[in-house]
Amino acid sequence: MQFGIFTVGDVTTDPTTGRAPSEYERIKAMLAIAQKAEEVGLDVFATGEHHNPPFVPSSPTTMLGYIAARTENLILSTSTTLITTNDPVKIAEDFAMLQHVADGRVDVMMGRGNTGPVYPWFGKDIRDGIDLAIENYALLRRLWDEEVVTWKGKFRTPLQSFTSTPRPLDGVAPFVWHGSIRSPEIAEQAAYYGDGFFHNNIFWPTSHTEQMVNLYRQRYAHYGHGTPEQAIVGLGGQVFMNRNSQDAVREFRPYFDNAPVYGHGPSLEEFTTQTPLTVGSPQQVIERTLSFRDYAGDYQRQLFLVDHAGLPLKTVLEQLDLLGEEVVPVLRKEFANLRPAGVPDAPTHSARVAAAQEAPKGETQG
Length: 366
What we know:
alpha/beta, ten-stranded parallel sheet
């Protein structure tokens, strides 16, 4: 199982000081956080993609390429690549290039995003969101899997005998997760291709997460990729820790109460009861995270959001120390002990290259 962190790259005023970082400071902080994630032994760093204030990660592959040069083991991922408004040709080439730069330590999470105005900014219509996601991803898969592509669709100009360059490293494209909070069509898409499904359950009750993951697992089996238990599932989560749980609540409360995404709404206590947000001691985080298995089954990737809502870099780095030293080692052991035989490991480039070499000629790895 893989453990890591994801960032949304928000530039938010620290409510305890009244100061907001500059875009430069926030970008540099994200780079420091990624390098710290490797230092403490986490597996994955993922960044979102946004094209509007107050967010800064508009060019994920630029950021991940920089991090690749300064890390050795960390898997570099997106927590959203906008399959709806990005050109599939550019996605194919950018992430294949990143694969080569990072020696294969790359995967990608496709999503529609949650910012409506982004569609017209890139010449698209939000009413076409699902159709764009389906058509663009179908083309992307062909660009990665086929050397020469001739294609015609609804939303972009046709391609005639086109070869995307560079080709995927070792002939194996980056592993793809399809990220969704609310759209069953995206769970269906992930299942159809035999790709991973990532449910970023940070704002929704566990009952909704359970429904979406179960739908994906059932459809994964329907399309002949394996049993429901063999489907590749990832979950999001939010944590804030202190060795003393009361101190964690006291320290995090002003950030929660003023955060743009959920401030001035339900109380911290209500939110932690109704969603996977965990604010407390490392042991509480361990117990809460292990409970995700009760409704999502045995899954392959757990990413935590730890650097949002104006939290200063020093505090985030302290959170990573707690994750790396006290939380993740226990979670690795406990999840491994609970996992039945036959449940697949999290995907890695080396494992997928080996599987591709063993597969019958003509088959490709999802």
